[in-house]
Amino acid sequence: MGRNDSSSFHYIGLNEVENGGITLYPNPATNLVSLNNAEMGSVVELIDIQGRVLKSFVVNSTNQTIDLQGVEAGLYVVKTITPNKEKTFVNKLIVNE
After folding, report:
1. CA 39, CA 76: separation in Å to the nearest integer?
2. Which has the closest alpha carbon to 44: 55, 31, 29?
3. Cβ–Cβ contacts within 10 Å for residue 37, how many?
4. Left (φ > 0), alpha (ψ -120 to 50) or beta: where does 7 sit?
């Protein structure tokens, strides 16, 4: 590492709500996972355990699919930020090989 630039890292804070009714299935997942009940226009980030954002997209459907191709097996956080940035929801996701 050696850099002091942490702009590519995200930390889960106390002001973030567990999951807000947003569901991920299947969980554990292998190739695809469905994200349901996220508000349209929300920003979704797939974050590894080191805090790096691996994928980021804007929700354009109440039943959104996340492509896990190229994502290694492990534990991840799916962070959903509402369009007005008032709330952040956090879901855990296990990716299997």
Report:
1. 21
2. 55
3. 14
4. alpha
Q: Which of 93, 91, 92, 95 is nearest to 42 (CA)?
A: 91
Neighbours of 48 (CB within 10 A): 17
Q: Per DSSP, what are the bridge partners of residue 35?
A: 24, 64
pLDDT tens-place string over residues 20-72: 789 999 999 999 999 999 999 999 999 999 999 999 999 998 889 999 999 99
At 76, which amino acid appears?
Y
Task: Give all strands of the β-sheet with 63-67 in edge-to-edge order.
Answer: 23-25, 32-36, 63-67
Between the alpha carbon of residue 21 and those of residues 28, 51, 62, the distances in Å are 18, 23, 12
Q: Are 90 and 78 a contacting pair, CB within 8 Å? A: yes
Identify the residue whose tokens are 């002091």: 4
Which residue has 């290694």 as its token pair? Answer: 72
Residue 18: pLDDT over 70: no
